[in-house]
Design goal:
Elements: E1 6-12, E2 25-30, H1 36-44, E3 62-67, E4 71-75, H2 86-102, E5 106-114, H3 121-132, E6 137-142, H4 149-163, E7 168-170, H5 179-191
Parallel strand pairs: 2-4, 2-5, 5-6, 6-7
Antiparallel strand pairs: 1-3, 3-4
The structure holds guanosine-5'-triphosphate and magnesium ion (MG).
Length: about 200
């Protein structure tokens, strides 16, 4: 998919404030600090359109980025960061789950995990929840630039089996690896008919 225009649209802190679901949306979720915002920036070749930070848990709102005037990339708050107070964690969880469950215009959830992390129960539960709610998802292993080939192959096998993922996209916001493959998955999802 060729990106002809991308602009930061708006941040939302409440589900009731979201725009009418008139354009297809692709959402990005993963643990805090996993590299969600960096991945979106790399996809769009637009440094800084999705805010990145070295402080985990920085993205606390649902951030909409308008692409080609015809779809939204949605940067979700990171989940599961241990240092965030429980009350805040709960409200984030509700915000993310509410968004994913209710959003008629959501076409795909891009689940991002750190390729260096061991396959983890947290993602397993999330995937089970996505499947239960019939939300289409694709698995992306990011920060692959930090791994040697053997470790990376092991990570791919382990995560794919553990989550029963149809495919795995290996990605690096540093090298740009995986960018084309992820765009293809997004493009395919954008073409899919509306959910009934
Ligand atoms: P929150 O919004 O806080 O949940 O974080 P996030 O998931 O949006 O992560 P973000 O993109 O802010 O990146 C977190 C840190 O990881 C930053 O220091 C990035 O520079 C780094 N990072 C992200 N992607 C990559 C990658 O592919 N390779 C390497 N080496 N570092 C990365
Ligand atoms: Mg972020």
């Amino acid at each position: 998919m060729k990106v002809t225009g991308a602009e930061f649209y708006k941040s939302f802190f409440k589900l009731t404030a979201l725009p009418a679901p008139n354009l297809p949306e692709i959402a990005f979720a993963g643990r805090s600090n996993v590299g969600k915002s960096s991945l979106i920036n790399k996809l769009l070749n637009y440094r800084g359109i999705a805010k990145t930070s070295s402080t985990p848990g920085r993205t606390q709102s649902i951030n909409f980025i308008l692409v080609n005037q015809n779809c939204f990339l949605v940067d979700l708050p990171g989940y599961g960061y241990a240092k965030v107070p429980l009350a805040i964690k709960k409200s984030w969880g509700q915000l993310i789950q509410g968004y994913l469950k209710e959003r008629a215009s959501l076409k795909l959830l891009v689940l991002i995990v750190d390729a260096r992390r061991k396959a983890n129960e947290e993602e397993k539960l999330f995937v089970q929840w996505l499947n239960l709610h019939n939300i289409a998802w694709v698995l992306v292993l990011t920060k692959t630039d930090k791994l040697k080939n053997a470790a990376r192959a092991r990570a791919r096998r382990e995560w794919q089996t553990f989550l029963d993922a149809v495919s795995v996209i290996e990605f690096s916001a540093v090298s740009g690896e995986g960018r084309d493959k992820l765009w293809r998955a997004i493009y395919t999802a954008l073409q899919s008919p509306p959910a009934t």
